[in-house]
Amino acid sequence: MITVQKLLSWYDRHGRDLPWRKTRNPYHILVSEIMLQQTQVSRVLIFYSSWLKQFPDWKHLAQATNTEIIHAWSGLGYNKRGLMLRDIAREIVKKGTPQTRETWMTLKGIGPYTASALTAFSLHERVMPIDTNIRRVLGRFFFGLLFPDPKKDKQIQKKIKAWLPTHGRFYDVPQALFDLASSVCTKIPNCVSCPLRKECHAAQKFLSGNVRVPKNMIQKAKETHYRNKPYPDRIYRGRMLKCVRLHDPNGVDMKEIGLHIDPSFDRHLDTEWLKNMLERMIKNGLLKKKNNVITLG
Ligand code: SF4
């Protein structure tokens, strides 16, 4: 319990001042959680308030068209997330805001981590959302694992049940752990500055200075690359959406879009690749095709 108090006083001094930490509104919290998936905090900060201005609640978001969402999400990347958020809002307008972790999880697009985050931050329940960062800190702290993997999550959850206090600011503990993970307990941690150092089962191993990051952790995330293209497909899909967005509402002719996304586009070699990417984006509701003209979904 003492370690929790130490962690919280560290958080009071060093924690980040983020707007979604000042609210218990589940809509605001979900917007931040979905935006934070695969996007850095500094970037999310730019979009979070303008999104809430344009779509202040579930009802306004539920009424938004695909085109409005694509414009508002533009620049955040992984555009499917914006449409998914709107679809969740539509469900909530129909059925009401979930009041338990289990009900949150019945909504398409909400997994165990997001459901736990919503329950912890909006309902202030004793639940710990375990993501890579929290897993890293607690796997080290409880078990002395240097680079813990998700297989350990069940055991971490068991330990948390006894470790989290039943009163006071237990709901701030996950946020404190996020900040500790991003500034102190990083891949190669700075244990000397850590408030959990004395009780942490991994501190001595790191302080010995002999720990190396395993090679498989340095590898970049696997992404699909086509032929000799210098970038992963994700980049070309982003360019395609940007190009169509800039030509909204007229759209872009199918014959021209290849050269818009890649100056070395080869009609013989690359058309199938382009069509496959396009089909995927049409399926996700981001784009539409009519008479060989591509428009926003
Ligand atoms: S003491 Fe080191 S390894 Fe343990 S939680 Fe703190 S920074 Fe991480």
From TrEMBL:
GO terms for biological process: base-excision repair; mismatch repair. InterPro entries: DNA_glycosylase (IPR011257), HhH-GPD_domain (IPR003265), HhH_base_excis_C (IPR023170), MIG/MutY (IPR044298). Keywords: DNA damage, DNA repair, Glycosidase, Hydrolase, Iron, Iron-sulfur, Metal-binding. Pfam families: HhH-GPD. Residues 35-183 form the HhH-GPD domain. Its cofactor is [4Fe-4S] cluster. CDD domains: ENDO3c. GO terms for molecular function: 8-oxo-7,8-dihydroguanine DNA N-glycosylase activity; adenine/guanine mispair binding; iron-sulfur cluster binding; metal ion binding; oxidized purine DNA binding; purine-specific mismatch base pair DNA N-glycosylase activity. Signal peptide: none annotated. The keyword DNA damage applies. Belongs to the Nth/MutY family. PANTHER family: ADENINE DNA GLYCOSYLASE. This is HhH-GPD family protein. It comes from Candidatus Uhrbacteria bacterium GW2011_GWC2_41_11.
